[in-house]
Write a structure and sequence with these properties.
With 272 residues, this protein is α/β, with parallel strands linked by helices. The chain is built from ten helices and seven strands. Strands 3-2-1-4-5-7-6 form a seven-stranded mixed β-sheet, sandwiched between helices.
Length: 272
């Protein structure tokens, strides 16, 4: 997968998110809307700031950034998916935020001038960049001296769900990226490539509550795991579903299924 043409990969990713947008983060509550503000809380944002949200999705970090920047600030959200862009625009409009601009744009080829941003944020998306080092170079280029880059990525789940990785491993390509970002060291390496220092790292957690194994399966289609499921042909997907649901049934308790997700966060600052 990683050896394929980056342009083709980006088209594939854009199409996936276009299809996923209507239900994305819409099952079992919106955990992105919890974790997005927690990432923004780690940034020192002044009113009037200019912020670029790369791979903004439906606006989980875009909205809190806009609220912090105030009416004198500007927040530009970019995403390769037209449907995600349209959804983010709608959410900003619903919140009455006039300082938000959202556009279809490649995070590895930002059509922005040098040193235009006081902060660049990227939530849970580095693993979708075919060439992360190119993204890091672009983040560095558009960031002004003294500015901040803030990242989040998914950490490991607890050992009770190790079977899922085993089932997935032989069937699916987990990432289109040439790098893995499921640990703080990888996030730190990305930030160093983006020419920032004073790196601070942390972890945030949120628990997803699901009624039963059927809701679990619906949930798997409502976020980026869908990308992996779409790679399977119908027979392989049916086999995966049957095996996975058998595991999930054994994990169900009287009050349903609880899954704790761990979000890795890292923030760095560019020297003045």
């Amino acid at each position: 997968m990683n050896e394929r043409d980056p342009g083709a990969l980006k088209s594939l990713i854009a199409g996936f998110f276009d299809r996923a947008a209507p239900t994305y983060d819409g099952v079992a509550g919106s955990y992105f809307s919890i974790l997005g503000p927690r990432l923004v809380d780690r940034i020192e944002l002044r009113e009037g700031a200019t912020i670029v949200d790369v791979a903004c999705g439906k606006g989980a970090t875009l909205i809190p950034c806009a609220e912090r920047a105030g009416t004198e600030g500007t927040v530009l959200g970019v995403d390769v998916s037209f449907e995600m862009v349209r959804s983010a625009r709608a959410h900003a409009r619903k919140r009455g935020l006039s300082n938000v601009v959202v556009a279809v744009m490649d995070g590895e080829r930002l059509a922005l001038r040098k040193a235009c941003a006081d902060a660049v944020v990227c939530g849970f998306s580095l693993h979708f960049f075919p060439n992360p080092l190119e993204a890091a170079a672009e983040f560095a280029r558009v960031l002004s001296p003294g500015g901040t880059i803030a990242l989040s990525e998914w950490g490991a789940t607890d050992d009770r769900w190790a079977w899922e990785d085993e089932l997935v491993g032989s069937l699916l390509v987990k990432s289109v990226s040439s790098g893995s970002f499921d640990n703080h060291e990888a996030l730190e390496g990305f930030l160093e490539s983006a020419e920032v220092t004073d790196i601070e790292k942390g972890t945030e957690s949120v628990t997803v509550h699901l009624a039963d194994e059927d809701e679990w399966w619906t949930w798997k289609w409502s976020y980026s795991f869908r990308y992996m499921l779409e790679q399977l042909d119908a027979d392989a997907r049916d086999r995966f579903q049957a095996d996975a649901l058998e595991h999930v049934r054994t994990m169900r308790r009287a009050d349903g299924i609880a899954i704790t997700l761990h979000a890795l966060m890292a923030v760095g600052r560019k020297s003045r």
